[in-house]
Amino acid sequence: MASVKVTGLNKRFGDTHVLKGVSVEVPDGAFAVLVGPSGCGKSTLLRLLAGLEEADEGHIFLGDRDVTRLEPRERDIAMVFQSYALYPHLTVRENLAFGLKLRKTPAAEIDKRLGEASEMLGLGPLLDRYPKALSGGQRQRVAMGRAIVRRAQLFLFDEPLSNLDAALRAQVRVDIRKLHDRLGATSVYVTHDQVEAMTLADVLFVLNKGVVEQAGPPLEIYAHPRTKFVAGFLGSPA
Ligand code: ADP
Ligand code: MG
Predict the structure, then answer these.
(1) Are strands 57-62 and 4-13 parallel, antiparallel or unpaired?
(2) Centroid of ligand 1 to alpha carbon of 15 (angstroms)
(3) Transmembrane stretches, by residue range (predicted)?
């Protein structure tokens, strides 16, 4: 089970109150999008889900497990960052295998998972290259491959398309959604882009200044915005 439940999450950095009692529920297998303007707390929320930051108050459940105080490696989560975060001194193959080796996965199992991920993402011809010899889109696919070989139940995406040009962005957006459907995973995807949010989401969360202003199916929110902010941000008809 990879449903996500976040209750009453608060996070402060010094005097800055970044998340103000955020609650979010994502059903198992859903593609959830957190959308909101720059600085509203999207990345912070994702980092809390991943265990890269600690909550001041509130709880995070994955399935029925309370993971609020667990280390990232104990959470069964894969995160795809904006900046890809590939190891520059390792080949694509080594980048894909790195996390599995750390976890002492047997070599035959590593080969099998790398084969599957390469096939899904078309990485075969790239396996012996170094990250610097890849395009932005190719790096993004490797970053996704790394998440896939982990067999994570929950995928977290932080603005994964923001470093790509417009044509590629549309393509990778479709690829990400296909991958999600094929893996049967649960995804939480962060973006400030309304079009991306509307086209990808099964369930949408509109964030503003550390508060979830509205949650639900994207078309319903678009048609029936509950606040002025939501209406303006999504460009809902008046
Ligand atoms: P978003 O991803 O929606 O653009 P962030 O979650 O990155 O927003 O940031 C929300 C707010 O929290 C911003 O005001 C940012 O400056 C602040 N913030 C984020 N991380 C830190 C940090 N490690 N230390 C201090 N302030 C931070
Ligand atoms: Mg961010």
Answers:
(1) antiparallel
(2) 12
(3) none
β-bridge mates for residue 22, sequence order: 9
- Model pLDDT for residues 140-186, shown as the tens digit of each residue: 889 889 888 988 889 999 998 887 888 888 888 888 898 899 888 89
Query: Atom 12, ligand 1: which residue's CA is nearest?
Result: 18
Question: pLDDT of 7-16, one tens digit each?
Answer: 999 999 999 9
Assess whether the C-beta atom of 173 lies below 6 angstroms from ligand 1: no
Residue in the structure block whose two tokens are 């503003």: 208
Phi, psi (rounded to 5 degrees) for 56: -80, -45
- Tens of pLDDT, residues 74-114: 888 888 876 667 999 999 999 999 989 998 999 999 999 99
Location of structure tokens 């990485």: 123
